[in-house]
Amino acid sequence: MPTRLLLLADTHVPKRARALSPQVWAAVDAADLVVHAGDWVEPPLLDELEARAARLVGVWGNNDGPELRRRLPEVARFTVDGLRFAVVHETGSAAGREERCDHDYPDTDVLVFGHSHIPWDTVAPGGLRLLNPGSPTDRRRQPVCTMMTATVDAGRLSQLTLVPVDR
């Protein structure tokens, strides 16, 4: 049975937005698994996502304080239908990212990360897929805010979509 994923990062609630948009909440409701790659900023959003998501995997980011760091790991690892995932907030500069992450995450098929607010989808030389969903609340230098959806089926990632988010 396929697993529907929602990938989020850099929500920065309530600093960049007071709340997630109805569009993001609808995606949460539709997902079997929500992955959040850090920079929540305040714990109430974590509470809301824990209550509403069918399953939630998250990590803390550089803008997250002591309570979020106590409740969330710096790196999360999980497997969906044989596909090995890792989640982390920061991966360093874009230059050399693929090679660096290949080295740092050797037993991983898909690495979800955040920090830059810049959507990213590449494959490292060793086959590691690197995904950054951007931010659904703070587009920075991007034309729109974003999140990603995907499906895992029979151990393969498919239907990966960068979704523009209306604020």
UniProtKB/TrEMBL annotation:
<dbReference type="InterPro" id="IPR000979">
    <property type="entry name" value="Phosphodiesterase_MJ0936/Vps29"/>
</dbReference>
<comment type="similarity">
    <text>Belongs to the metallophosphoesterase superfamily. YfcE family.</text>
</comment>
<keyword id="KW-0479">Metal-binding</keyword>
<protein>
    <recommendedName>
        <fullName>Phosphoesterase</fullName>
        <ecNumber>3.1.4.-</ecNumber>
    </recommendedName>
</protein>
<dbReference type="GO" id="GO:0016787">
    <property type="term" value="F:hydrolase activity"/>
</dbReference>
<dbReference type="InterPro" id="IPR024654">
    <property type="entry name" value="Calcineurin-like_PHP_lpxH"/>
</dbReference>
<dbReference type="Pfam" id="PF12850">
    <property type="entry name" value="Metallophos_2"/>
</dbReference>
<feature type="domain" description="Calcineurin-like phosphoesterase">
    <location>
        <begin position="4"/>
        <end position="154"/>
    </location>
</feature>
<dbReference type="InterPro" id="IPR029052">
    <property type="entry name" value="Metallo-depent_PP-like"/>
</dbReference>
<dbReference type="GO" id="GO:0046872">
    <property type="term" value="F:metal ion binding"/>
</dbReference>
